[in-house]
Design a protein that fits this description.
59% of the residues lie in helices and 10% in strands. It is an alpha/beta fold.
């Protein structure tokens, strides 16, 4: 974001620039601060600008442009900058345009702070600056009954009034602004860069309006993506297979509970596959034992057959009658015959 804050002295440009610095983390480049630093350090630019500043007149363009060029070359200005109080006339605006074109960083917008001149004298006379950090405050907007102090620095240093913030120089500064700086409103309007806000409102209101007119130049926080409903994600037409599967898993927690025991059973069954060789060994031993039983059974049947054959052969062989038995038979036969004769 590269912008210029344009407005009369005391219109609140410095206060709003400080707020933008806190929000956007880009430097505020104020020609007044740069020139005062040059005066305090006693540089060549500072000595030349001191007389004009004390008299309420604008510093020569070559001095201001030289200081701005050096400041824009510093690393912190590469991501953007806020120019406060520069340019102050058409010549400086054209020089700034060519200078930014050379470094490839043209302006994005110029914001004009519109304020009634009747309020500017009071604002300027009540303006105070922190001696340490340079932050600007106003005694007229401080809470009642409290002494104005810097809220940023830890030791709360005292606030000082700038030499050119007194009522005697306010009227002259406003005349110079009308003659040299106000033509910039038409200059930047013709180029489509001008945006105007009402600077008579409270500070917070002016900040909100400033952010509103800058619009897309101010990065907005990224909102967290909304979670899609599980039922929509589960439809096959609006979801990939992976998302549909995850959605179904979310909508059916009981299926997960049933699937878990099956998975455990499968996990338990896996080690059994390692014991297959043992089963094969057992079956081989069983086959061997069955074969032995069959052989033994066959041997028994053969033995029975042999025993039957032997018994048959024994029955078929004639018996040798002993001599005693034959004699006994003959004796019995004789006795039977005798008995028959006697009966007759």
């Amino acid at each position: 974001m590269r912008i210029v804050l344009l407005g009369a002295p005391g219109s609140g440009k410095g206060t709003q620039a400080q707020r933008l610095v806190e929000l956007q983390r880009i430097p505020q480049i104020s020609t007044g601060d740069l020139l005062r630093a040059a005066v305090a350090s006693g540089t060549a630019y500072g000595l030349q600008a001191k007389a004009a500043m004390n008299a309420g007149q604008l510093v020569a363009d070559d001095i201001v442009v030289g200081i701005i060029r050096e400041r824009l070359a510093e690393p912190d200005a590469a991501a953007g900058f806020i120019l406060d109080g520069f340019p102050r006339n058409i010549a400086q605006a054209e020089t700034l345009s060519s200078m930014l074109g050379e470094i490839g960083q043209p302006l994005d917008a110029v914001v004009q702070f519109d304020v009634d001149y009747a309020l500017l004298s009071r604002r300027i006379s009540g303006r105070r600056t922190c001696a340490d950090c340079g932050r600007v405050f106003n005694i007229h907007t401080a809470p009642p009954g409290t002494e104005p102090h810097c809220t940023r620095c830890n030791d709360h240093p005292r606030l000082v009034q700038r030499p050119d913030d007194n009522e005697s120089t306010v009227a002259r500064r406003l005349e110079v602004y009308d003659q040299q700086t106000r033509p910039l409103v038409e200059y930047y309007s013709s180029r489509g860069l001008l945006r105007t806000i009402n600077a008579d409102a409270p500070v917070d209101t002016v900040t909100s309006e400033l952010l509103s007119v800058l619009g897309s130049l101010v990065p907005q926080p990224v909102a967290a993506p909304a979670k899609a409903p599980a039922a929509v994600a589960a439809t096959p037409s609006a979801a990939t297979p992976a998302t549909a599967a995850s959605a179904v898993a979310k909508t059916k927690p009981k299926a997960k509970a049933k699937a878990a025991p099956k998975a455990r059973a499968k996990a338990r069954a896996k080690p059994k596959s390692e014991t297959k060789p043992r089963r094969q060994v057992k079956t081989k031993t069983k086959v061997k034992t069955k074969a032995k039983i069959k052989v033994k059974a066959a041997a028994r049947k053969a033995a029975k057959r042999n025993s039957k054959k032997q018994s048959k052969t024994r029955r078929a062989a004639p018996r040798k009658k002993s001599k005693q038995s034959s004699k006994r038979k003959h004796a019995r036969a004789k006795s039977r015959r005798r008995g028959a004769v006697r009966r007759r």
